[in-house]
Specification:
alpha/beta; TIM Barrel
């Protein structure tokens, strides 16, 4: 089933959005992450995507109090990322009530961590963020890029056992334009499992992020389900009233 995940990005305990991942282009949308989560649940969300922007930049989660409040305030499943770089931190996040953790820089620079995380917690508990800027994978809160293609790093991580990916086109993130449909499809096709490869079995699943602004975007992404695109993340479009979360969820169904 195709899932629409509204996003809560945390910076200094507040709900914000960055434009193209730039920390000098911040818009604050609220001071109560828990209340935002409750509203998403009232609108019908079953999953919420939470990002610790401070954590992504500094290398360890910094908004755990806000995350705990979100987990306590809603029955929605929480997908969380931002500065997660060790198994003890993963364990702490699951104890707080997080359903799936998204690894970023740590997994890209050290696929062994992704392998160990999948082995310790299970394939459905671990995702890896593939954040792409002009065809290159970005790390450290999107502040640096690596000379490696998204497809290549995706294949390495797939062979390490990763079965969930969050693919973000940075230049479209927060821009209210449209997703990079072609790049999403190419990545999903590149990492598809053929036969028994890597650690364990199971289909690779991709969640698309960046630029989702209107219902037609939801429908086009949903049409990629056969490639393994199983959901999308929506942020600024909801906060600024460009897209109704209720309508987006209905389109996904």
């Amino acid at each position: 089933m195709f899932v629409v995940m509204p996003a809560i990005d945390l910076l200094g305990g507040q709900v914000v959005r960055l434009t193209q991942g730039r920390y000098d282009a911040v818009t604050v949308y609220g001071s109560s992450p828990a209340e935002v989560a409750r509203q998403f649940e009232r609108d019908g969300a079953t999953w919420i995507h939470v990002v610790d922007l401070d954590g992504a930049k500094l290398g360890e989660p910094k908004n755990l109090d806000a995350l705990k409040a979100i987990c306590s305030a809603t029955k929605c499943s929480i997908q969380f990322g931002g500065g997660v770089r060790s198994l003890p931190v993963l364990e702490r996040l699951f104890e707080l009530g997080v359903k799936r953790v998204v690894l970023g820089t740590s997994a890209i620079q050290n696929p062994l961590l992704a392998y160990e995380a999948v082995k310790a917690f299970g394939q459905d508990k671990i995702a890896v963020a593939i954040d792409v800027k002009e065809g290159k994978v970005a790390v450290k809160g999107w502040t640096e890029t690596k000379e490696i293609s998204p497809a290549e790093i995706g294949k390495r991580l797939r062979d390490a056992g990763v079965r969930w990916f969050v693919y973000t086109d940075i230049l479209r993130d927060g821009m209210l334009t449209s997703p990079n449909f072609e790049a999403i499809a190419q990545f999903a096709e590149a990492v598809r499992v053929t036969g028994d490869r890597g650690q364990g079995t199971g289909e690779v699943k991709v969640i698309a992020s960046g630029g989702v602004t209107e219902i037609e975007h939801i429908r086009r992404l949903k049409a990629m389900e056969t490639l393994g695109v199983v959901g999308c993340i929506v942020g600024r479009a909801i906060y600024e009233g460009k897209l109704s979360l209720k309508d987006a969820l209905e389109a996904a169904r």
